[in-house]
Amino acid sequence: QVQLEESGGGLVQAGGSLRLSCAASGSSFSNRAMVWYRQVPGKQRELVGSIASGGSSYYASPVKGRFTISRDNAKSTVYLQMNSLKSEDTAVYYCNSPSGTGWYFNWGQGTQVTVSS
Fold first, then answer.
1. Cβ count near 76 (within 10 Å)
2. Is the per-residue pLDDT at 28 higher than 80?
3. Which of 2, 62, 69, 86 lies at a 20 to 30 A Cα distance from 46?
4. Do 39 and 46 form a contact (C-beta atoms < 8 A)?
5. How large is the average pLDDT for residues 49-76?
């Protein structure tokens, strides 16, 4: 099975920081691009950013300059460092790896981030 487990979420004041982790089980992590998404109940899932297998990254406009994605292939883990958090960053955060028209990993439970203003 190829599973994901997100962690590191919590309650933080606006302007604060959090570091999320997404640990993958199974093989092939190092060869796969990883993507972070976030979702607010009742709204569509929103792309946060991605990191390629080689380490290059992309960020959506709302988080660019504040969030940083990194990966540790030895630990099969991808990270999302979130700085200067805003109330609009409140969401459940998920990671996965695109595969064709679907996803390579089974979706994890996500990790809740709540930013108080």
1. 18
2. yes
3. 2
4. yes
5. 97
